[in-house]
Amino acid sequence: MLAALDLATGKLFYRIRPRKRAIEFLAFLKTLRARWAGEKLYVICDNYSPHRNADVRAWCADNEIELIYLPTYGSWLNWVEAEFAALHYFALGGTDHRSHAEQNAAISAYIRWHNTRAEPKTGFATDSPIRTWTHYPVKAA
């Protein structure tokens, strides 16, 4: 599964594919680009090799998508990981799906349920100075 979390709405966007190579990741990025045409996109990624593929990086550079890589072993910094944990708990945990199609249907049903109740992700790092520029002095030239 390839997925993205829109922080402005809290909705998940996903594609289930048999493999997760650079070609599938690039196709997913193209669907995100089409959904938010005309806006710069910031995509937070782990260090999985398809995310760092040269063709992927070149296409992103040409299409107003900035890939932001988390530090190694820092996936917990990405809010989508919390959404994956919930998906696992509610759609996959304690189940024994008889086929990939049945498992994919459970994932799809959970994401539809989640997206109907989604709210913007605004409560992160509320007391952190990195959320505003007011903590950094501006030097006059």
TrEMBL record:
Residues 1-89 form the Tc1-like transposase DDE domain. InterPro entries: RNaseH-like_sf (IPR012337), RNaseH_sf (IPR036397), Tc1-like_DDE_dom (IPR038717). SUPFAM superfamilies: Ribonuclease H-like. One of its GO terms (molecular function) is nucleic acid binding. It comes from the Bacteria. Pfam families: DDE_3. Signal peptide: none annotated. This is Transposase. It comes from Lentzea jiangxiensis.
